[in-house]
Write a structure and sequence with these properties.
The chain is an alpha/beta fold. It has a single domain, classed as Rossmann fold. Helices cover 36% and strands 13% of the residues. It has nine helices and six strands, in the order H-E-H-E-H-E-H-E-H-H-E-H-E-H-H. Strands 2-1-3-4-5-6 form a six-stranded parallel β-sheet, with helices on both faces. It is globular. The chain starts with 6 loop residues before the first helix and ends in a 6-residue tail after the last helix.
């Protein structure tokens, strides 16, 4: 069994026609998508949600984290290969967008089955510099302030030292992962439809920077703007998931109820 998916997730997806693989944002884990199956089902999306669990967090806390994007993609491509031979969609938010696109691009290069579509939110295209959440040498206090101001840390958790001490090393390594060399991803457009989501009030990644992914779309590109800032997927979760369900139905071939 792949380390990137829970056994229960794989078992539950057995009857689904289309799988939705969800890649986490910096500092996040698979639990960020814990409510999505129920909400997407309510919106008639017709997909099975499969949250990706990266090493070094939550159920994989004792495993070393990746700080090199190419090494992570190599590992994911090998581990997930058998799970990606059925119809599927990739979705990634922020750092997850970079990982989702990178994995699809790597599989294109080696002729492996590709997603039906790739949905990306709140991240710049790889020909642009990575978004700078905080300076590499930023203190813990500065990093916490930056993440909190973007909505990456719920206010209720800011006074929980145990949570913050666990989050910060993960966030720092993930930021290193994002600043790696993504130049190779710009050499050839992805032969998969891209669906882009941008927060209208995102202070880290602007709407035009999200739209910049169009350069890398070899099979068409669609852009949706969402209310809220960088973490609109959390602050406006139901609104976003209604949009994602609409997108998913295009590929799951689920009829919309009258």
């Amino acid at each position: 069994m792949t380390r990137y998916l829970s056994r229960s997730s794989i078992d539950e997806s057995a009857g689904a026609d289309v799988r939705l693989f969800c890649f986490p944002y910096a500092g996040g884990g698979a639990s960020a998508y814990g409510r999505w199956q129920r909400i997407l089902d309510a919106h008639g999306a017709g997909v099975r949600v499969l949250p990706i669990q990266l090493p070094g967090r939550e159920g994989r806390i004792d495993e070393p984290r990746f700080t090199d994007l190419s090494a992570l993609i190599d590992d994911m491509d090998a581990e997930l290969d058998d799970e990606l031979d059925r119809p599927h969609i990739f979705y990634g938010h922020s750092m997850g967008a970079l990982i989702a696109y990178s994995l699809a691009w790597r599989r294109q290069q080696r002729g492996a089955p590709l997603p039906l579509a790739v949905a990306l939110s709140a991240y710049r295209a790889p020909h642009l510099p990575a978004p700078l959440i905080a300076r590499p040498e930023a203190s813990d206090e500065e990093l916490i302030e930056s993440l909190a101001s973007l909505g990456g840390i719920p206010q209720v958790l800011l006074n929980h030292p145990d949570f913050l001490s666990a989050l910060l090393p993960v966030a720092r390594d993930d930021l290193l992962l994002c600043t790696g060399n993504a130049a190779s991803l710009t050499s050839e457009p992805l032969r998969v439809p891209l669906h882009l989501f941008a927060g209208r009030r995102d202070r880290l990644v602007s709407v035009p920077e999200v739209v910049s992914w169009r350069r890398h779309a070899g099979r068409g590109c669609e852009v949706r703007t969402m209310p809220g800032g960088h973490f609109f997927v959390r602050a406006h979760e139901d609104t976003f998931l209604r949009e994602l369900a609409t997108l998913a139905r295009q590929y799951a071939r689920v009829p919309v109820a009258a």
